[in-house]
Amino acid sequence: MHLRNLRYFCAACETRSTVAAARQCHVTQPAISNAIAQLEEELGTVLFTRQARGLVPTAAGLRLYRQGGKLLADASAIVESFQDAGSRPRLALRIHPALDTAHVARLLRHLRRELVPLELTVLEQDVAAGDGSPADVELTVESCVPSGHTFVPLWDERYVLAVPPDHPLAVQEQVSLRDLHGTAFVDRLHCELAPHWHAGLTQHHVVPDVRARVRSEEWAMGLVAAGVGVTIAPLHGGRARPGVVVRGDVPELQSVTRRVGFAFPGVAQGTVAEVVRVCSPWTPVEASV
């Protein structure tokens, strides 16, 4: 079994697309497909099923992803152990709290695989209570980029209405923001568009019943899944949320999107330039199978 095939397979498992996996690994799509086919032949099992929403790992595929990911991590650790600690590139990364942790995790795994000796430090979004160390790069929303910083876009997200499965709005044929009047609501204080939503709802005399105010994406979605209330949130691609019904058909949200990417002062140099280079496959264009 070749580590290269495992690497290509894991990329396809994470991106759910041979096209996106090829971009991520800097190879052609046939190289990804051939790697998957070779693994399936070698292991005597089917690793993916192909559906309209993309590649879906089978039970065997998920098992290989767990075991193969550990093997790749061990291989990277061996290489890293022979590196001089003083010469390893370092990167301090600050991550906006309103970003989807699952998608960010995929990006970070890719980054650490591509730059094996990289020593990555993740800083809090608010450093007031910390040591105040500046970040080399910020993974943030375009509208939050500090003045004088360069912005490199990575992906786009659209805003949707997230609803508990047993909520009336989950099955209502047509939904608009006016339906939020008096509805239990989870307010996402960390969202850069929060003031925009509040002003828009007030303008239309829509007053939600705010049951929770949270400062992290996972708390917001967790409370929606628990049935505490509904929320307006960005969604990457078509990724489903466990225990949450996503209403992407709200007319007022159809054209509302945001762009996520890297922000850094000046021009990318050294380690920052390498990070931007290896993450270039994470483009704002939606990939297909």
From TrEMBL:
One of its GO terms (cellular component) is protein-DNA complex. It comes from Piscinibacter gummiphilus. It comes from the Bacteria. Pfam families: HTH_1, LysR_substrate. The lineage of its organism: Bacteria, Pseudomonadati, Pseudomonadota, Betaproteobacteria, Burkholderiales. GO terms for molecular function: DNA binding; DNA-binding transcription factor activity. Keywords: Activator, DNA-binding, Transcription, Transcription regulation. PROSITE patterns: HTH_LYSR. InterPro entries: LysR_HTH_N, LysR_subst-bd, WH-like_DNA-bd_sf, WH_DNA-bd_sf. Belongs to the LysR transcriptional regulatory family. This is Uncharacterized protein.
